[in-house]
Specification:
10 helices; oxidoreductase; globular; Dihydrodipicolinate Reductase, domain 2; six-stranded parallel beta sheet; alpha/beta; Rossmann fold; six-stranded mixed beta sheet
């Protein structure tokens, strides 16, 4: 007898969870029941998925019973505690947090690049990379297949929504406060006007500003997100010795992350060949006619599925290196879509 797998979305009320519900509604329906789960704060809230109204359950053991596949879009500490519970109740877990990404017994999967890895899951858990890593990987993975990647030097321009709903609320409040004022013209005036009370989870004011810090403090001046970008890229591409140096920066954009990339390869590169690779790679759109004003920006790519690539140039001093600019919707391409695609890969393992 065949049956469609039962799905639970844990974190259904969050920024990434809301995006996931839209994707489940839009994609081919491979699911039996869909259960929506969040914290006890949201229990009883009604959300729509696949055109049906569905009441949110509070996360507990009962809510996870009878689920074949559980998609976790929750803070790392919630995933760390509850994903193993879901597995013990018989579910396969796809987790979007940082709780398991670098666990050697948990595959880190980007379906365009390493779909086979999702089948080997000794802990019953598959992890999805950080949104900034996902902005990078479809394009850089394709260029690696063509030219052999040796080194990456990266700078990110990360949107507020990458830090969750509270960061979006803080940025909106700050933007309303500075609109129509002379703020931003004298040392510290934005910081004084915003005050500690309106920073939300951000370490500094974001309106009229850029903040060269995302994530938690790690040794030698690095942030957790900078080191995560390095280690996750190595893991997905299967290049444990790849040189990666990243600087992660938060910018006053609501949704869609961007990256500047300096990528050095084994072989000589040409812009024409790189264009050909990027234009034909799944999950990537090449948009690179600067003379016509055609390059990706967050405002233009928000709400779309792919990573957009533009500003492709050969490095002036190195025939083996490329400079490029990448841009993708962090909630959609960078979180929910990748999780949904991993879940669909696993759903295909169920007998039909
Ligand atoms: N935002 C991004 O661009 C992005 C990208 C990649 C990965 N991620 C990761 O995805 C996860 C979710 O991010 P987000 O931006 O969607 O966060 P968010 O907007 O803050 O949403 C968090 C979700 O987790 C739920 N939750 C919180 N505490 C819980 C608890 N104790 N028990 C059960 N559910 C709980 C929340 O439920 P309530 O509404 O009831 O509080 C909400 O549904 C995080 O691990 C984040 O690092 C996010």
């Amino acid at each position: 007898m065949t049956r469609k797998p039962a799905l639970a979305v844990v974190g259904a009320t969050g920024a990434a969870g809301s995006e996931l519900l839209q994707i489940l509604t839009r994609h081919e329906d491979v699911w039996g029941g869909i259960r929506l789960i969040a914290s006890p704060r949201s229990a009883g809230r009604v959300l729509s998925v696949r055109g049906e109204e569905c009441a949110v359950l509070a996360l507990d053991e009962d809510a996870l019973a009878g689920v074949d596949l559980a998609l976790f879009l929750t803070p790392g500490e919630v995933s760390a505690r509850w994903a193993p519970v879901a597995v013990s109740r018989g579910a396969v877990v796809v987790d979007s947090s940082d709780a398991f990404r670098l666990d050697p017994d948990v595959p880190l999967v980007v379906p365009e690049l390493n779909p086979h890895a999702a089948r080997l899951r000794p802990r019953g858990i598959v992890a999805s990379p950080h949104d900034t890593t996902l902005t990078l990987l479809p394009a850089v993975g394709a260029l690696h297949a063509a030219f052999g990647l040796r080194e990456l030097v990266l700078s990110s321009y990360q949107a507020a929504s990458g830090a969750g709903r509270a960061a979006v609320a803080a940025l909106r409040e700050q933007l309303a406060l500075v609109a129509g004022t002379e703020l931003g013209t004298a040392t510290g005036d934005v910081r004084r006007a915003v005050g500690e009370g309106r920073l939300g989870p951000l370490p500094a004011p974001l309106a009229l500003n850029v903040v060269p810090w995302t994530g938690a403090v790690r040794s030698d001046g690095w942030s957790s997100e900078e080191l995560g970008l390095r280690e996750e890229t190595r893991k997905v591409l299967g290049l444990p010795a790849l040189k990666v140096a990243a600087t992660c920066v938060r910018v006053p954009v609501l949704t869609a992350h961007s990256l500047t990339v300096h990528a050095r390869f084994e072989d000589e590169v040409t812009v024409a060949k790189a264009h050909e690779v990027l234009a034909t790679s799944p999950g990537v759109v090449l948009y690179d006619e600067p003379a016509l004003g055609d390059f990706p920006t967050p405002a233009d790519v928000v709400g779309t599925d792919p990573t957009w690539a533009g500003r492709v140039r050969r490095a002036p001093d190195d025939p083996c290196a490329l400079e490029l600019f990448l841009c993708a919707d962090n909630l959609r391409q960078g979180t929910a879509l990748n999780s949904a695609r991993i879940a669909e890969l696993i759903a295909a393992e169920f007998p039909r």
